Amino acid sequence: MTVLDRIVTDVKVALERHKRLTPEHELEAAIRSARPVRDFESALDGPELAVIAEIKQRSPSKGLLRESFDVPALAKDYTAAGANAISVLTEENHFGGALSHLALSATHSNRPLLRKDFIIDPYQLYQARAYGADAVLLIAAILEASLLKDLLSLATELRLACLVEVYDPDELDKIDFDQVSILGVNNRDLHTFEVDIDHSLKVFELVGNEVIKVSESGLRSPADLAYLHRRGVDAVLIGETFMRAENPGVALRSLREKTAAILTSHTN
């Protein structure tokens, strides 16, 4: 069993517990009184490289990333530092996440929020909307094409944007690009957890320019970001680099400024 298999197995167990504790009709009631969604797609769609800054306490490959884990402070710092959007890990067993982290981030930031989790059931979309998400991550590797299509349709009904993530180029065959406007490519192999930042570029070559392209995982330096943006990447999702920094907001601001300087220098 791979790491990804173990995560999905544990998500299924946690999902049954959540369904017992909070029936779907209660989530639907919460959605009816929820704030309007923030425009995740527009936040990423601009001439400059957009940064989705991530809030997560640990990961299966790297263990604990941050001892001091103050979600409201992190959301505020990312917002002040100019994050275009914020990704919030909500998976409990392997990433130390919680739905409460999503709700706290929604309270302490005006940026669009991405619920990052291993979504395998429509119930999780209702959860995401009820707890303050503006977008959700859908991982093609763990979804049959028919379920992916159904989740995309329900997300549209709930006014949630979707970041559809692939790793293997063959996973593109699952995607109806009439439904998908934001495509993410994970540079980390979800089976071996090895990272290659060129991987996303190879996959993006296989899709048209009409989708917003997001490179995910393994991104650390301004040179990495400038390299990706010059080759057509619209946005990056960064977690570990910021979570390991003494001050994640300062790290984000510095990374943005240095990346912009490299890109300006290259243009001139």
Describe the structure in brief.
With 268 residues, the chain is of the alpha/beta class.
Key features of this structure:
alpha/beta; TIM Barrel; eight-stranded parallel barrel; globular
Describe the 3D structure.
This protein is of the alpha/beta class and 268 residues long. Helix content is 43%, strand content 16%. It has an eight-stranded parallel β-barrel, surrounded by six helices. Helix 2 runs parallel beside helix 6, helix 4 crosses helix 5 and helix 9 packs across helix 11. The mean pLDDT is 95.
Q: Assembly state here?
A: single chain
Count of β-strands: 10
**CATH-defined architecture:** Alpha-Beta Barrel
Q: How many discrete structural domains? A: 1
Structural class per helix/strand content?
A: alpha/beta
Silhouette: globular
Mean pLDDT: 95
Sequence of secondary-structure elements: HHHEEEHEHEHEHEEHEHEHH
Terminal CA distance reads: 51 Å
The CATH homology group name: Aldolase class I
- The CATH topology, please? TIM Barrel
Helix share of residues? 40-55%
**Percentage of β-strand residues:** 15-25%
Largest sheet strand order: 1-4-5-6-7-8-9-10
